[in-house]
Design a protein that fits this description.
Elements: H1 6-27, E1 44-48, E2 54-58, H2 70-75, H3 78-111, H4 124-133, E3 137-138, E4 144-145, H5 156-168, H6 170-197
Helix pairs in contact: 1-3, 4-6
Length: 198
């Protein structure tokens, strides 16, 4: 019988898990700013929205696997093994991103928080329409805590052009400031309700 090395196997497993968590952060960088909680039991989650019914979501199983032939494993370098783990993580993150956008589409359609550009390019007008539909929180210094906006690489030039328009057009800047004042008032009202409820 071959000797077993449980403490060594445990250390290797910890190292592999740490590596995979790191690679998940690299491949799934869009998730890094989203708060996460571990759910230990159950088959669904629920969100209580103000003035709306309870919104339930079923949990979805995502999985990825790696198969290595034992003869192949003997010939593999550590770098090749890690590359295979990385491919597995990349596959899993791809599934997460796909599920995330499907869920976001369902939720935003349901709540009416959709801006359909109907194929037109991003303009300051569309940007204002998007900002008006979302809730914006503020930092302790009164500055807006702006949401992360995900765009297609093909939209980068449009975003740059819209940003230049904002910087060069005083009327657009004033409109933005007015919108932020309105959003600040909404945020203040939410904070007051939380204080009263707490």
């Amino acid at each position: 019988m071959l000797p077993d090395f449980p403490s060594l196997k445990k250390s290797v497993a910890k190292g592999v898990n740490r590596y995979m968590r790191h690679r998940r952060k690299v491949h799934g960088h869009m998730f890094n700013e989203i708060p996460q909680r571990q759910i230990f039991e159950g088959d669904r989650t629920a969100v209580e929205r103000p003035h709306e019914a309870r919104d339930e979501s079923k949990m979805v199983r995502l999985s990825a696997e790696m198969t290595v032939d034992i003869d192949e494993l003997h010939a593999m370098s550590l770098e090749q093994v890690l590359r295979r783990y990385d491919e597995m993580v990349k596959d899993l993150v791809g599934q997460q991103i796909k599920h995330f956008f499907e869920l976001m589409n369902t939720v935003t359609e349901k709540t009416g928080n959709v801006v359909d550009a109907k194929g037109q390019r991003l303009t300051p007008e569309l940007f204002f329409e998007m900002l008006e539909k979302i809730q914006i929180d503020f930092n302790s210094d009164g500055s807006p805590n702006m949401p992360t906006i995900l765009i297609s690489p093909s939209q980068q030039d449009d975003v740059r052009a819209a940003q230049e328009q904002f910087e060069s057009d005083p009327a657009l800047r004033q409109r933005y400031e007015n919108l932020m004042k309105s959003k600040f008032g909404e945020w203040g009202a939410r904070q007051a309700i939380r204080t009263l409820a707490g």
